[in-house]
């Protein structure tokens, strides 16, 4: 199973926990997840400064804790995993849009795309 889209409304701890619990009920032996721009707390480097009205006082450490609570899957963020001989690469970065997570301008995305391994079989962005 590959889930490459928002799995929360804002990336709050209770939303991530509910998604993780749901993943745990699925019969698929391998579950791969890539965050979307609504999974804002997973954008650990940028979200604490963006949180504003949604999550006042959000810290980088708390975002890392939320991210680490996703345990019922393989989480990809500019990284790869090989499953049944297929190399799968996942990246959550999206075109810049408002005050969302994983926003990147076109020139930034082009630099990120250079990191995609040439031997990638399945690309999820």
Q: Which features characterize this protein?
A:
flat, 8 strands, three-stranded parallel beta sheet, alpha/beta, three-stranded mixed beta sheet, 125 residues
Can you put this structure into words, describing what you see?
- The chain is α/β, with parallel strands linked by helices.
- The protein has helices at residues 13-25, 47-50, 60-68, 106-113, and strands at residues 2-4, 32-34, 74-75, 79-83, 86-90, 94-95, 103-104, 122-124.
- The longest helix has 13 residues, at 13-25.
- It is flat, with a radius of gyration of 15 Å.
- The mean pLDDT is 90.
Give the secondary structure arrangement, pairings included:
Blueprint: E1 2-4, H1 13-25, E2 32-34, H2 47-50, H3 60-68, E3 74-75, E4 79-83, E5 86-90, E6 94-95, E7 103-104, H4 106-113, E8 122-124
Parallel strand pairs: 1-2, 2-3, 5-8, 6-7
Antiparallel strand pairs: 4-5
SSE series: EHEHHEEEEEHE
Please describe the biggest sheet, giving its number of strands, its sense, and whether it closes into a barrel: 3 strands, parallel
Query: What is the alpha-carbon Rg in Å?
Result: 15 Å
How many β-strand stretches?
Answer: 8
**What is the beta-strand fraction?**
15-25%
Q: What's the average pLDDT?
A: 90
Output the strand order for the largest sheet. Answer: 1-2-3
**Portion in helices:** 25-40%
* Approximate shape: flat
End-to-end C-alpha gap: 15 Å
The low-confidence parts are none
Q: What is the structural class?
A: alpha/beta
Count of discrete alpha- or pi-helical segments spanning 4 or more residues? 4
């Amino acid at each position: 199973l590959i889930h490459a889209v928002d799995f929360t409304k804002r990336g709050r701890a209770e939303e991530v926990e509910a998604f993780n619990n749901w993943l745990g009920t699925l019969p698929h032996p391998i579950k791969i997840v890539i965050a979307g721009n609504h999974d804002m707390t997973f954008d650990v480097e940028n979200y604490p400064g963006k949180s504003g009205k949604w999550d006042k006082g959000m810290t980088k450490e708390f975002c890392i804790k939320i991210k680490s609570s996703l345990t019922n899957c393989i989480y990809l963020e500019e990284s790869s995993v090989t499953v049944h001989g297929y190399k799968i690469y996942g990246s959550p970065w999206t075109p810049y849009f408002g005050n969302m997570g994983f926003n990147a301008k076109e020139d930034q995305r082009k630099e990120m795309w250079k990191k995609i391994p040439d031997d990638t079989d399945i690309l999820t962005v």
